[in-house]
Amino acid sequence: MNQTRTLFLLLAALFHGHTAPAQTPAKTPEKAPEKAPAKKQYIFHGKVESIDKVGNYVSASNEKIEGWMDAMSMVYPVDDVSILDTLKPGDQITATVYEGDYSLHQIKVVAKATGTAETKK
Q1: 5-37 as b/e: b if 16+ CB within 10 A
Q2: DSSP-H helix ranges across the chain
Q3: Does residue 102 contact residue 76 with C-beta atoms inside 8 Å?
Q4: What number of other Cβ atoms are within 10 A of residue 101's Cβ?
Q5: Which pLDDT tens digit goes with each residue over 32-47?
Q6: What residues contact residue 105 under an 8 Å CB cut-off, 6+ apart?
C-alpha cells in the first residue's frame, strides 16, 4: 500500500500545475453591422403658396398623406434649392417625403399656376 501511495504522490507532484491546455471556442464569423432601417417614404401632393429663395423653402398646402400627415399648410425646406427658380405660387406639385423628415425631395410640377404669384427674393 505504501508503494501505491508513493506512486500516487509522485505522479501528483509531477503533474501539479500541468493541466490540459484550455480549448478555445471556435470563432464565429463576425456579423456585418446592421444597417439602419430605411425611412418610410410617402408621396406628397400639394399646391405652392409662396417661395422663399433666401430661406430655401416653400410654403405649400398639402393633401392628407395617409399614415403620416393630415392636410395642412406648412413651410417645407427643399432638398434641391435650384427648384425654387422654377416654382411659382399656385403650382401643383408632387414630392417625396420621408418619415421624420419634413423636407420635400424630388419636387415635380404636375400643373403650372395660372395668374400672378408671390415670390420672396
Answers
A1: eeeeeeeeeeeeeeeeeeeeeeeeeeeeeeeee
A2: 2-15
A3: yes
A4: 13
A5: 566 666 889 999 999 9
A6: 79, 80, 95, 96, 97, 98
Write the DSSP symbol of residue 88.
-
- CA-to-CA distance for 80 and 43, rounded, in angstroms? 17
Residues of the chain above pLDDT 70, percent: 64
pTM: 0.64
- Domain 41-120 carries which CATH code? 2.40.50
Phi, psi (degrees; rounded to nearest 5) at 61: -100, 130
In the beta sheet, which residues pair with residue 41? 98
DSSP state string for 27-49: PPPPPPPPPPPPPPEEEEEEEEE
Tell me which residue of 29, 22, 54 sits closest to 120, measured CA to CA: 54
Other Cβ atoms less than 10 A from the Cβ of 47: the count is: 16
